[in-house]
Amino acid sequence: MVIVIHQAADTRNALLYNEEKVTEGVATYFQSANTESLNPFLYDHNYRLNALLDIENRNTRSLNKCLHISFNP
Q1: pTM value surpassing 0.85
Q2: Which residues pair with residue 6 across a beta bridge?
Q3: What are the phi and psi torsion angles at 33 (to 5°)?
């Protein structure tokens, strides 16, 4: 099992990386929290990006707002 934790600089880049992996079929949707939808993959990637950016904007105390964790069993 490999777990990699990255402090990503940009939420958009992290999301696009994940979107690409899901499209390629080498990754899958696992879980979502703090969003208006139980399954944000029912909507397009712009919805998912805006949901993440809304969460970031509400969190004013955090300096590094994007954390990318890769869990590979």
Answers
A1: no
A2: 68
A3: -140, 160
Contact 15/52 with Cβ under 8 angstroms?
Answer: yes
d(CA 56, CA 73): 29
3-state secondary structure the chain: CEEEEECCCCHHHHHHHHHHHHHHCCCCCCCCCCCCCCCHHHCCHHHHHHHHHHHHHHCCCCCCCCCEEEEEC
Q: Phi first, then psi: what are they for 29, rounded to 5°?
A: -70, 135
Instruction: Give the span between the Cα atoms of 7 and 66, in whole angstroms.
Output: 6
How far apart are alpha carbons 4 and 69 in whole angstroms?
A: 6
Task: Return the axis-axis angle of helices 45-58 and 11-24, rounded to nearest 10°.
Answer: 150
pLDDT digits (tens, 9 = 90+) for 4-51: 887 766 888 888 888 898 889 888 776 767 677 777 778 888 888 888
